[in-house]
Amino acid sequence: MLSKKGPKEKFYLGNTNLPTAQTEYDYTPAMIKEIAKCRKNIIHFASNYFFIINVDDGRQKIKLHTFQKRILKGLMENRFNILLASRQIGKALALDTPIKTPNGWTTMGELKDGDKVFGLDGNPCNVVKAHDVLYDRKCYEIEFENGEIIIADADHRWFTQNLKERKRKLEGSVKTTEDIFKTLYRNKNEPNHRIPSCFSGLNFQENELKIPPYVLGLWLGDGANGSSRITVGDRDINETLTLLQEYGQYKVTCKKWKQRAYSLNLGMLSGRYGMKKETSLSEELRNMNLFCNKHIPHEYMFSSREQRLDLLKGLMDSDGYINKDGIGIFYNTNLKLAIQVKELIESLGYKTTYKTFIPKLNGIDCSECAEVIFKPRELVCKLSFKSSRIKINNTKKPESNKRNQWHYIKNIKEVESVPVRCITVDSADSLFLAGKTLIATSNTTLMTIYALWVALFEEDQRILIVANKEQTAKMILKRIKTAFEMMPNFIKSGAVEYGQTNISLSNGSSIGISTTSSDAGRGESVNCLVLDELAFLDSGLLESFWRSVYPIISSAKTSKILAASTPNGIGNLFHTLWEGSQKKGDEWNGWNGERVDWWEVPKRDEKWKDETIRTLGSRDAFAQEYENAFLAAGEIPIDQDVYRMLESSCKDPEFIFDDGQYIVWDEPNEKKFYAVGVDVGEGLNQNASVIQILNITDLTNITQDAVYYTKKQSPYNFAQKLHDILQQWGRPPVLVERNGCGGQVIDSLKMNYGYENIVTWGTKGAISNDFKVNDKSGIISHQNSKIEAITNMRYYMNEMRVVKLRDTKTLHELKDFIRHPNGTWSGRSANTLDDRVMSLVWAIAVLQNDICKKYFEIVSMDDNQRPLKLKPIDYGITDITLPQNIYINEKDAQAFMPLPSIFPDQPDSSDEFSHIPDYEILKKDGWSLFNSNLF
What we know:
Elements: E1 2-3, E2 24-25, H1 29-40, H2 42-49, E3 51-54, E4 58-61, H3 66-77, E5 80-85, E6 92-94, E7 98-101, E8 104-107, E9 116-118, E10 124-130, E11 139-144, E12 149-153, E13 157-160, H4 163-167, E14 173-176, H5 177-182, E15 194-196, H6 213-222, E16 230-233, H7 237-244, E17 251-258, E18 261-267, H8 281-287, H9 298-301, H10 305-319, E19 320-322, E20 328-332, H11 335-347, E21 353-357, E22 360-361, E23 364-365, E24 369-374, H12 384-387, E25 406-415, E26 420-425, E27 431-434, E28 439-442, H13 445-457, E29 462-467, H14 470-486, E30 495-498, E31 502-505, E32 510-515, E33 528-532, H15 539-555, E34 560-565, H16 573-581, E35 592-596, H17 606-616, H18 619-626, H19 640-649, E36 655-657, E37 662-664, E38 674-679, E39 689-695, E40 702-710, H20 715-728, E41 734-736, H21 742-751, H22 783-799, E42 803-804, H23 808-815, E43 817-819, E44 825-827, H24 835-844, H25 849-855, E45 856-861, E46 867-872, H26 893-896, H27 919-924
Parallel strand pairs: 5-34, 5-35, 29-32, 29-33, 33-34, 38-41, 40-42
Antiparallel strand pairs: 1-2, 3-4, 6-26, 7-8, 9-10, 10-26, 11-12, 11-25, 13-14, 15-25, 16-18, 17-18, 19-20, 20-24, 21-24, 22-23, 27-28, 30-31, 31-32, 36-37, 37-40, 38-39, 39-40, 43-44, 45-46
């Protein structure tokens, strides 16, 4: 039994789950026996004293799988351990899910490795891995109480607090979308699940702003639409003038405007906020395109929290109101501005309600008005009449009894599958913010169990957890602390230090964290080293870290190392250690190698494997992601057996036209229908322009019917050639990559020739500083649209095996078209051609569901909800002009050999032929006289 001799001194900071060295126990024989068992057997310890939070049942003992028991046993019996783990799947959101970044809004589909998003604490965190787009996943639409709707797959993980956890005063736990769907309501009046808001708001860098944020806020609220004049009421005029004196660069002119209002003019803005010369407020408003276009400029929306708060104060002092209950309300008839104010308030850490209504004046409808409602916890205005009503609250995280500090899940329903994607972030809790209202959503159990077991049952152990980012290491330590607190006290050593980066126990053991980029751990006495995702640690930093730390650990007789990771190519430290662990005899490196394969994970079977391969579009990709295969960078988009199959389908063309640039295997047929993919180059002996024409009449037998390849034509001339060829094939849908020179070709095709079937795709989330992509036709190629299109091509070529290539040059380019280490696809080197491949990728992209349904009637779908049988919507397949009616078939040698010249036989002298033009030239070129009697 636990014996307490004093109140708080027996527990660390008063937490009854954290005994200290002074806490005394009356140990029973059963307790002593249990401690001995745990010290001897890590599996017994984990099975009986390691707790997790279950969605339905709350706190409960972990149920170890067979492979987990095997690995834990190996960790206990060996000093140096390396764990090769199959990638887990899930955490996927729809590609069009809005994601806020330090540079502005983007989408889930657009994120790439190294980008920054925001964690739940409001601080930027890194996208460690932006995973491939997934298709045909079971998807749900999640609707939040504030109206936000997010589509996620069934396995996406969310950190929520359900009713049971609220009653037990637990922080919450991670659940999948499907888990939440099954437990949506516990009673009719209260949603079961809620997600904490980004309480502290987002942290951006401070910007140099031309106009002070408070002043801009005042003008946006009560300023004249076409001038710098600001209207202020009687009650607030004196205080407003005093407030504006803080901005000494203004010369404020004040005059009575109406019976109960004043008009303020602010002149001569200079000195502060990045101004290089004196200028007026009016001039700056005009330069920022704000006259007759009121909105919050980008640099203000993404400025520091202090600057954004100052902007809000100006908005609230003008068009805002604080009611007697301390509720903040912003009104405005400019709906665009009101929506921006909503986003601004949410970026400061508040949950908002937005609605529109039609106000009446003397019974007459006025202009539509919007209001943004929120409950401020800090001063969000400067005028005393309003600020006096605000109840200041200095809490640093959402309070359980404050509904307006949580996002409640109102409803979930299963919807038609959409392309989804997951990212891995390095925030402390693996959470990142998604959606316009910034909903928190989530992204290592064996590692946690192992580190905790060593710390509890071995004295004077220094355990060091190493990750690529400090936040990731903190996340692992946080999980260890959570598990530690949930254990019964008698099994624990007392807490001596209990911080974010280190915990120390009364038995002399401690657990700390480090990154390969820091000096922590170097030169120290480390008894147990835990390396998280070793294959993904920066190789340059890891090398020096390993040279410094490994000799210290390996020199001790009882030290331990656990290195865990999924594969990430060959040649790195993780690959080297793993390969050495698998060797025998003298070649063995002394490491115990354990692996977790996909079939050991519950709910994974051959059906799951087949579905996942089809989703990824490649058996090679599945091997790397799920079968623990170490693949070198340079994976090609098709498997070797598919390459051999395509090689056998290649053959000589039936027609060769236009100096060999235009080759055709099957002539156009009015009873068939086609898709055309185009990649545009500069021409004029630089990059080539390519047209790929596919016969998609039968989706079980897609054939490459023609290819046009030229380096001779400028984009302007190529547009005419493309139009001519499209006419020959019945004016089919054409997919032209817009980037670079493609825009000129598309615009010419559209404006000069009136071509209507130009496919527009890839604009969602595309960012360009040169043009607004939503106003342009064509294929917008960015990393994500390109990956999605290549995944689509791999599905039809690699998995369905329904594409037959005829052109050997296209096939050879395909063999040198590889995925690079950063996940992008292109030619093997800068000098490797990929124009034929990309035009092929775009041609097959017509079978993307969202494109296909615009140009064809989809008669039936396959098991993965992709088009299986099509019926064309009439797009002009009439009056086809066959290419051979325009061009000479250069394959037929007689078609282009010059006709012979016939001269009289047996001349007496060459003078007789002097009248024949170029006779001497012909003789020099090898022509000879012949006897006409032979004919």
